[in-house]
Amino acid sequence: MPNLTSNHLLRQGRTRILLLSLAASLSLGGCATNGPVTGSNAGDFGVLGTLAGAGLGYGTAKALGANNNKARNFAVLAAVGGGFAGYQHGKAMDQRQAEEINRRAQEQQMMVERELQLQAQIRYAQVQVQPQPTYQVPQPQPVMQPVAQALEVPIAKYEMVSARGGLTPKAMKSLNYMARTAQQSNADLVVLIPSTEMVYAQAIQGAAPGARIMESREIKNFVLIVQPRNQ
Question: Whole-model pTM?
Fold first, then answer.
């Protein structure tokens, strides 16, 4: 009796070791995210289940006292069952991974679409904010016609010469205006200066470099003349 009890306990211990080995193998296999051997979890777990079932079946049969033939037959049945169970477990993992991949792909696609929509809205807003170009109708520019007759502007001495002896601002503006008029009209600017005021000829020449300075004994005021060149 003691021997039978010891053999029985030994067989139970072997069975427990095989079961623990199978459980450890399945736990380690469950850590993989895909099938590194066959390319799929279903294939890998099918192979793992077949091997584990065969080993567990054979070991269990031998532990229960079966001979080699019965142990091999039992191992084949256990291998088929273990392979089927492993295949189903791996297939379920493949399905979950495929669903996760599809979900992430859809989220990525949605993010891309939202980004494109946001960029389109920003471009539309920029177009709306940009000031529209204004188109101005070109106005006809006045055309200066050559003067047909002389244009004379008399200027008194107090308007031409300041108390300090220089030209007054009004005289400077008049000289500039008459000089531009002469240039645009293809005419000459002539400045008549009384003989008694010829000391201001240099200042007048500096204010209107193109002017012709002429002395006159018959006048008392300064005279600015825009004279056509054909006269």
Answer: 0.36
